[in-house]
Amino acid sequence: MKFFLADENQMLAFGERLAQGVGRSDAGCVIYLNGELGAGKTTLTRGLLRGLGHQGAVKSPTFTLVEPYELEKRRVFHFDLYRLNDPEELEYVGIRDYFAQGNVIVVEWPDYGAGVLPPPDLIVVIEYRDKGREVEVQGASPRGDSLLVQLQ
Fold this sequence. Notes:
Blueprint: E1 2-5, H1 8-22, E2 29-35, H2 41-51, E3 66-70, E4 75-80, H3 89-92, H4 95-98, E5 104-108, E6 122-129, E7 132-139, H5 142-151
Helix pairs in contact: 1-2, 1-5
């Protein structure tokens, strides 16, 4: 499913819309975000977090690897693997502990964690188009497929 988003506000709104589906269930969700530098991965995550009830700042975890968010009804972990040298480094930070039942996991640059990350529920690809962005969302599990239906 593809969407054209003209600006940052539309990317934020799209993240909030995605959060409506994610927040309807106590089940966790793993979302892979793919796109070039500056494409809007963190902006989409900011919208998702706002849609799930986060009120504070959202920063890219480029240098910290992961930013945790403790929300009223769930925990969200935002990963940025761009600076990862080897997927095995994720084992040293206890990556498996983050993937507990009910947690929402957002992973930027998931290819850098190949072989260590669990499979995604949703795969989001953000590409530059004209002055905006084209966002393609693919379901990669039954949970992801149900989230796609809610985006229609």
